[in-house]
Design goal:
β1 and β2 form a beta hairpin. The longest helix has 15 residues. The N and C termini lie far apart (28 Å). By secondary structure, the chain is mostly helical. The chain has one domain.
Length: 76
């Protein structure tokens, strides 16, 4: 997957809803977006993943991860 593709996304939920990506890939991308490595200085509640056009709230990334996990069903 190219960074150019991810740059077309503006919201974590768009990634969750993308039909061509495997859930494991989506989860890995979302987890990286939620990491402190991309913290916005002086606004730790926001993250600016390099692939996205704008910062997103951490709670939006975590909600997208939750949506992904819910769609996958219960863990075995």
């Amino acid at each position: 997957m190219s960074v150019h593709f991810l740059g077309a996304l503006s919201d974590p939920r768009e990634l969750v809803e993308h039909p061509q990506l495997e859930p494991e890939v989506k989860r890995a991308i979302l987890a990286s977006w939620a990491s402190d490595a991309c913290a916005v200085q002086s606004q730790p509640r926001l993250r600016k993943p390099p692939e996205l056009r704008r910062p997103v709230a951490v709670q939006d990334v975590l909600a997208a991860l939750n949506d992904l996990d819910t769609a996958a069903g219960p863990a075995v």
